[in-house]
Every structure is written in structure tokens, then in C-alpha cells.
Amino acid sequence: MSVPHLLATTHVLAQPVDAYAMTTGRLWSMVGIALGLAGVIIGALALARRSSRPVTRRRGAIVALAAGLAGTVVGALVVAAAEGGPGTGYGIVGGWVCLVVGPVAMILGGLVMARVRRTSAEYIKQV
């Protein structure tokens, strides 16, 4: 193979994808973002919830932790598998968003778990 042939091949591979084209990298990025946002919403609701039973808040905290972890893992896999930068169709920007939103969900879930531990000890004393 000649050098111009190799340069032409890499030029074809590195061309940006259409802005509205759905690639697998972008799809997985959106899945990770959806998981992370679901974790953030559930964690925020569990944090704001006033419940007489700590079990309902604990369930929300566990779901937020799991969704945040899943979103972070998906984002890390997308970023690790991306072979190009923004605009190439590999979903690198969405992967980085997953790496921000996922830990936020896990932090909210951890805060709820800490509050549940504190209030569950008071709940047990009352019963």
C-alpha cells in the first residue's frame, strides 16, 4: 500500500457524521444519560421526601445508587471505546455527560442512605 492510499483511507474514516445521524455510540450515550438522570430524579425525590417509614426512602436511595452506577459505567465504556472526538459519531460528548450525571446520582443516593441510617435508629427507638 502506498502512503497516499493510507492517507485517503484515514481521511475517509475520520470524517464527521451528520449531526442527526443515530450511531451506536450516541445511542449508548443516551442510554447512560437516561440512567443517570433517572438516578438524579429518584435520589432528589427520596432526599426531599418526608416519610414516616424509612424503608421507602431507603428504596429510593438504592435505586438512585444503582442507576447512577449503571450510567457511570456506560459512560466510561463509551468514552473508552470512542476513536474520535466530538462530531465523529462515537458519542464521546454524551459519554462525558454520563460521567458527570452518574456520580451526582450516586452522591444523592449516598446522602439519602446517610439520612435513612440516622432516622431509622430514631424510628426503632420509637417503636
Write the layout of secondary structure elements.
Elements: H1 3-13, H2 24-48, H3 54-81, H4 92-126
Structural features:
4 helices; 127 residues; mainly alpha
Provide a descriptive summary of the structure in words.
The protein has 127 residues and is mainly alpha-helical. The protein is 78% helix and 0% strand. It has four helices and no strands. The protein has helices spanning 3-13, 24-48, 54-81, 92-126. Helix 2 packs antiparallel against helix 3, helix 2 packs parallel to helix 4 and helix 3 runs antiparallel to helix 4. Mean pLDDT is 83; it is low at 6-11.
Biggest beta-sheet profile: none
Q: How many runs of DSSP E, i.e. beta strands?
A: 0
Rg computed from alpha carbons, rounded to a whole number of angstroms:
21 Å
Distance between the termini: 80 Å
Structural class by SSE content: mainly alpha
Mean pLDDT: 83
Cα shape: rod-shaped
Low-pLDDT sequence parts: 6-11
Beta-strand fraction estimate: under 5%
Q: Provide the helix percentage.
A: over 70%
Order of helices and strands: HHHH
Number of H- or I-type helical stretches: 4
